Amino acid sequence: MVEAGMTNADAMKAATAEAAELLDIAEIAGSLAPGKTADIIAVDGDPLTDVTELERVTFVMTRGVRATAEN
Known about the structure:
The chain is α+β, with helices and mostly antiparallel strands. Helices cover 20% and strands 18% of the residues. The chain is built from two helices and three strands, in the order ααβββ. A hairpin with a 2-residue loop joins strand 2 and strand 3 (65-66).
């Protein structure tokens, strides 16, 4: 999306909140809020500056549990 001309922030929003809206699941996913299902990632750098940071995920939490190679 960024290569096609979107800003980093707009591409990240399109992949999360806007995708949840399109899929009609925004009430349960697409943003961080109490009661919503959330998968959270961490990266070392700032994806707003360098979107390729999202290709180098250093931490994943899914449904409140740190993901490992086993789960």
